[in-house]
Write a structure and sequence with these properties.
about 725 residues, 9-stranded mixed β-sheet
Length: about 725
């Protein structure tokens, strides 16, 4: 019988089995696990409504298909019908067909899950739904996990031909991915390290690293399966005797070895992470001798990103001055994923060396410049930007795609490492970059962009910065300009948030927050000379600020987050809450000292939101929508069974303990702490007194070794003890 005919027969037999259809049905329903029991991701709609179901389906589907695989492969041997079938068809061909039929069934199950759950994802994500992203996530997360469980189970069964041992081996393989391998993004086969999915910006980088993980396991398990296939029993022999017989078909061991070796190479040659030292030594990294004879007065960059592949090509030019009269050696910092292709000075080639000394996501490029006093140094470089390896489980921040670009410092251009600027002011950095229509560049700080010449479907942008580097964001940005507290405030956010921003009256909200907080607490230290720039970026959790600009993760403006009653009574008030974090969280950093600590930036931010709404809408409004909400949630918290009986909490499984702890932490930070601050307000003499205390804490000097506002700092400023603020 021809192989194709044998495969059709085996596939037909498999799909006539009730067990197969039961497995297909369970697997198609498996993404429901990601809505209930297994929800590792948060922060965006795509994380909760797309990634979590795909990850949940991956876990449940892998388990059910491993069971189906071992039952199907053991069926012939346990019933002893293999004596008859082996006399009619090749045992090797039969095993290959069975495995391929199972792989086909897994593909059908994953496709059914995607088709069934895509409308659910669309309804939950609304305006940010992207069919291509949905399909890509299911095809890269769930489908390969089903394949890998089949290949591993089939390989082990061919080796031992024991149902019990095979199942035990698979359980071990499954648990390794969830435990021992959980810190290694390439070894996590069933729970891939997908930390976040953006709603507003790009996910290409995350999907590419996910694809590399799947490629590694497909090659490795495919090779192992081919090698274990050599142990398929023939002529009544055992595993070793059958191996000696089957190995004569040279193509099978050759394919197996080639796939396995290629998988190992894919593991070792991954292009996404650098090879920085795990031990971070900032002193050693920044402590080196400077070349005082060489200075620069201007930098220009011609950038050519490939939005399809994620590669970056560019040429950087430096106006150098060498006052030594001798040849000099200077160095640059560059992203470890880039390679320098050529270096010229005054049009002549100069020698350079890539030290391959990855450290803190940088490597050093040394080059020898001639003795000329003035020269134009040109460096041509490019490659795939690598991210810092200590953040391997959080990949995706650095992005080059048609949806989003984020390139910072050495990711954009070589940074002068050991030579100086030769002007009192930072020298200009000018860059050119051509982007398709729909991608608008925004620079961090007060740096500016201007549109140059336009071609069909694209625009050349001129970037104006200063100093030795720049931070570039590009997305479908909309900008709002308002005058508030004597400042020109620019707010850049994704076009996908236009409707939400309009509903939240973003202009009025920004104006109210900046004027209220500046008046009550003082100006932010990172105000620029001409104003302030707020930028939404494709990340989650917190942000950073300096030199007239502040960035905020997109989760700060998610539609679900803007409906959180613990942050405010409506969308505009929740947005006010998020912007107030510029004062409590960025302008004055606050860090919790332990998990579940109620002292955090949230307490002061919620309290400030309450005070601002009290001023705008009156005391009755603030009491109803803030204080009463806090008190109700806090009362429920103190009546909670596990709060009153913490000994029972420790007996619960880790997952449930974590869920309860997160819920308790939220109530303590958003409700209990504002109530304590409100009580402190009454004890110190009222709102004006509290404003003076908070203004002093906000503008006061912090300890450089620990620049955080602590709970003890607050108590000391109020001249209160912790017991004074206990809630009755």
């Amino acid at each position: 019988m021809k192989f194709s005919s044998l495969f059709r027969v085996e596939l037909g037999r498999l799909f006539r089995s009730r067990l197969t259809w039961a497995v297909l049905g369970i697997t198609a329903a498996a993404p429901a696990v990601g809505f209930t029991f297994y929800c590792p991701l948060s922060g965006s709609l795509n994380s909760t409504a797309l990634a979590n179901p795909a990850l949940g389906g991956s876990l449940a589907g892998a388990l059910i298909f491993a069971l189906l695989t071992v039952l199907e492969l053991d069926r012939v041997h346990s019933s002893h019908t293999d004596v008859l079938t082996d006399s009619m068809i090749s045992p090797l061909a039969a095993e290959v067909c069975r495995t391929l039929a199972l792989l086909t069934a897994a593909s059908a199950a994953a496709a059914a899950a995607m088709i069934i759950w895509m409308p659910v994802t669309a309804s939950l994500t609304g305006a940010v739904f992207r069919p291509g992203l949905c399909a890509a996530v299911y095809l890269l997360v769930m489908l390969p996990s089903l394949w890998f469980s089949i290949l591993f189970t089939a390989a082990v069964y061919q080796l031992v031909q024991r149902l019990d041992i095979t199942l035990a081996a698979f359980v071990g393989f499954f648990l390794l991915s969830l435990s021992a391998w959980k810190e290694n993004w390439l070894l996590r086969w069933v729970n891939p390290a997908l930390a976040y999915l953006s709603d507003d910006f790009g996910n290409n980088r995350r999907l590419m690293s996910l694809g590399w993980n799947r490629l590694f396991w497909l090659l490795l398990l495919g090779g192992i399966w081919c090698l274990c296939l050599l142990c398929t029993r023939r002529y009544g022999r055992g595993a070793f005797g059958s191996l000696l017989r089957n190995v004569r078909m040279l193509y099978l061991p050759v394919i197996g070895i080639m796939l396995t070796v290629t998988g190992v190479l894919v593991y070792g040659k991954q292009p996404f992470l650098d090879h920085s030292k795990k031990e971070i030594d900032y002193d050693a990294h920044y402590n080196f001798d400077y070349n005082e004879h060489v200075t620069y007065s201007a930098i220009s960059v011609d950038a050519r990103p490939s939005l399809f592949t994620g590669f970056f090509e560019a040429t950087a030019s430096y106006t150098l001055h060498n006052d030594s009269g001798q040849p000099q050696t200077i160095s640059f910092w560059l992203n470890p994923g880039y390679k320098v292709k050529s270096v010229t000075a005054g049009g002549k080639s100069v020698p350079f060396r890539d030290l391959q000394n990855d450290d803190i996501n940088k490597k050093t490029i040394e080059l020898d410049i001639p003795a000329d006093e003035n020269m134009e140094l040109s460096v041509e470089y490019g490659g795939f930007p690598q991210e810092w390896n200590i953040l391997s489980l959080l990949q995706g921040e650095c992005e080059i795609s048609r949806d989003y670009i984020y390139l910072a410092h050495q990711d954009f251009s070589p940074m002068p490492r050991d030579f100086f600027e030769n002007t009192a002011e930072q020298p200009p950095l000018t860059a050119k970059i051509t982007l398709p229509d729909g991608l608008k560049p925004v620079l961090f700080s007060t740096d500016t962009v201007e549109a140059g010449k336009s071609e069909a479907g694209s625009t050349q942008w001129i970037l104006h910065a200063s100093g030795w580097s720049l931070i570039l964001y590009a997305g479908d940005y909309i900008s709002e300009h308002i005058d508030a507290a004597g400042l020109n405030v620019e707010f850049f956010y994704s076009a996908k948030h236009r409707r939400v921003m309009e509903e939240c009256n973003v202009n009025d909200t920004l104006k109210q927050v900046f004027e209220y907080c500046t008046d009550h607490y003082g100006p932010l230290f990172f105000y620029g000379e001409e104003g302030m720039r707020l930028i939404e970026i494709g990340a989650t959790g917190g942000g950073y600020a300096a030199g007239g600009a502040s960035v905020m993760g997109e989760d700060s403006f998610s539609e679900a987050g803007l409906k959180d009653p613990l942050k405010g009574a409506g969308g505009s008030e929740v947005m006010a809450h998020e912007i107030i974090h510029q004062w409590w969280g960025l302008g004055n950093m606050i860090e919790s000292s332990y998990t579940g600590d109620p002292w955090s930036s949230e307490g002061l931010t919620v309290y400030t939101t309450y005070r601002m709404m009290k001023e705008l809408h009156g005391a009755d409004y603030a009491q109803k929508y803030y204080v009463d909400v806090w008190q109700s949630r806090a009362d429920d918290y103190y009546q909670d069974f596990y709060v009153r009986n913490p000994q029972f909490l420790s007996a619960l499984p880790e997952k449930y303990k974590a869920d309860i702890a997160n819920s308790q932490s939220t109530v303590r930070q958003y409700c209990e702490m504002p109530l304590k601050i409100l009580k402190a307000e009454k004890l110190v003499g009222g709102e004006e007194a509290m404003d003076r205390i908070l203004a002093g804490l906000f503008t006061g000097e912090t300890n450089p070794s620990y620049p955080y506002l602590t709970w003890q700092d607050f108590l000391q400023a109020c001249n209160l003890t912790e017991e004074d603020l206990n809630l009755e």
